[in-house]
Amino acid sequence: MHPTSDSRLNPNMPLSPPAADSHQQGCVRMKLENTDLWKSFDRIGTEMIITKHGRRMFPHCSISVSGLHPLANYVIMVDMVPVDNVKYKWKKEQWEVAGKAEPQPPCRTYIHPDSPAPGSHWMKQSLSFLKMKLTNNTLDQHGYIILHSMHRYYPRFHITQADSPYTVRWGPFQTFSFPETVFTAVTAYQNSRITKLKIDHNPFAKGFREGGTHSHSKRCRSSGSPPAKRATLQKRVISRSPPCLQRMPSTSQSEEAGKSQSVKEGDLSGWALEQDPTESLHAELLELPENDYGCEEQMVPASVPYQPYRSLEYPRYALPPNDTDVAPTSVHPPPHPLAIPEQQLHTSYYNHPHQHNHAADWSQYPLFSYSCW
DNA sequence: TCCTCTAACACTTTTGAATCGC
DNA sequence: AGCGATTCAAAAGTGTTAGAGG
């Protein structure tokens, strides 16, 4: 079925340009940009700090997209999905299961600040979710993604044709995820190897690596603040020369534009949408045949109950062609990570068949907060 | 006692307003 | 006057650590 048919099914769905027919959702491809960095962390066991006031991810999510219609508007968003229904603890230099998972916090979806934007914009350059923040504060008012500490998650990216975040609900989704982006949410780093890796790669952590205060900042305070300032200025002058290397220009600029637009038009760009996990609006959809959803979420299989929910909205698109950009595709959700030896965990467990024993928990992760619509 | 979480810390990077020069 | 480049200060962001709390 074609997107235009969707519009007929859902009167509120914005009409796409006629030419969009030639760019079916099934052709959409997504690539994780900083794969090597993610894999470096993944080999050790990625940990993401979450704080009460929100913490950015590192490595951050950066993707590139292709196969979109250049003129059609799309909304791109990301949410976090629990890998399993257990919580972990760090013991004897490794992660161990510490019991059943906490009840899931309100599910939030972070919409890329540029949304909505035409396909040409999304395909022009890689998309950064740098400003997305993670928190463990279930009462958070900033719209950050709420996670539980000591639980494992992975980011899941969604693309849908929509002229406004408000109309996303009615559109067909294409969902992507990447096996190397699985991480454990923590309030303090547990694995010292992760700490070292972050300090090596994260520029903000240089304050602890350089200046001689690393690990002893409180006891060995350096008195040379002015020299540090000079160094900063020199670096800035240098970095100004190639602006494209400082940050993603269009991202930051359009981000600001998006913010001002959000004030004017109530745009939800850059904000997370919240869903009370106790809501079960799509519960009736969870009984769909499993083979109806396999092609929709690519790369990493997601929760069984989640996929049928979306597959109902767009069961007509063909599987995207095999692409080296993506991880091995499987129609099965991942098995329990701990059912696999630790050394295999990060390399192959997504290819393992899965027993669908976590369906109820995963079904708590719909895409949106219905209270927002 | 152990585990988890929080806040303060020192430092770097980012951001945006102000200033300067053409 | 307008524009782009540069400067500067404030804000934001980082990992570490001690201490609080369960």
UniProtKB/TrEMBL annotation:
The keyword Transferase does not apply. It is found in: Nucleus. It comes from the Eukaryota. Residues 256-266 have a biased composition (Basic and acidic residues). SMART domains: TBOX. Keywords: DNA-binding, Nucleus, Transcription, Transcription regulation. Residues 32-210 form the T-box domain. GO terms for biological process: cell fate specification; heart morphogenesis; pattern specification process; positive regulation of DNA-templated transcription. One of its GO terms (molecular function) is DNA-binding transcription factor activity, RNA polymerase II-specific. Gene3D superfamilies: Transcription factor, T-box. Transmembrane segments: none annotated. GO terms for cellular component: chromatin; nucleus. Residues 1-10 have a biased composition (Polar residues). Its main location: nucleus. Residues 1-24, 206-266 are annotated as: Disordered. This is T-box-containing protein TBX6L-like. It comes from Xyrichtys novacula.
